[in-house]
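A quick aside before the break. I want you to see a complete sequence-to-structure record at least once, exactly as it would be stored in a machine-readable document. Don't worry about memorizing anything.
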Amino acid sequence: MEISYQNIWIKNNQKMEKDELSPDFIEQGISLYEVLRVIEGVPLFLEQHLERLKNSARLTNLVLPLNDKEIGQRLQDLARSNQVENGNIKFVLNYPEPGQPADFYAYFVEHDYPTKEVYQNGVKTVLVHVERPNPNAKVDRADYRNAVDEAKRRTGSYEALLVDREGNVSEGGRSNLFMVKGDVVYTAPADKVLKGITRQMVLTACQNQGYQVVEKEISLEEMLNMDAIFISSTSPKVLPVSQVDDKIINSGSNKVIQDIMAGYDAIIDDYIKSHQ
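That is the input. The structure line, written in tokens, reads:
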């Protein structure tokens, strides 16, 4: 269900009232979307989000009706209209019928930013045997989303980790997945996962902090024998995992993860300073 968490949202180039947003519009036809974080009034990593949106359009053979500048202006207008300095924006290109032009939607969505204690202690995750359809394209799929949400609700988990038909663990339902063994960071190959914007910045943070990253397929058994695990996405940034199903993993105190968290925060600080 789509809900605007601020009073004003945008459809195409029109400002709309909160209760005018149809809760199920995103399930009609095909929807390409991005969720980005706004910090100190700056849409974080906007250029990278727009590049991924264009890639999703190419993979699905859809035509974007707006250019980068037009989308950027509408997102800035949304933030200014709601007087919001910090939050999450979701913007969607919805193609309701084949051959029809897309409608542009942008609205603030609910966010859950972890507390300092959560970053220290890590979060619980649950394994789900499901695969993201077309993993490199950010396309909304209700069946996939419902399976992930149900597993998290049933177990009280923060995130679901996806296990594919070959028994490999690739990513989270709404996050990218990383594992640490010694001083080496492991993650699934780029062609097997959604190329998260935070994922890109985590890889840069690893490089900046001097840690080797190995992209390879990781089996569930291998993952459960890693020293530490963390996930990355828009709201939590870099977040340690404390539990996978019944397996306890002490990731919060892992030095490699702590260094990567600090490196990622430094990248955010530099981006904000350069875009204010």
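Two observations worth writing down. Residues 174 and 233 are 7 Å apart (CA to CA). The chain has two domains: 8-109, 116-272. We'll return to this after the break.
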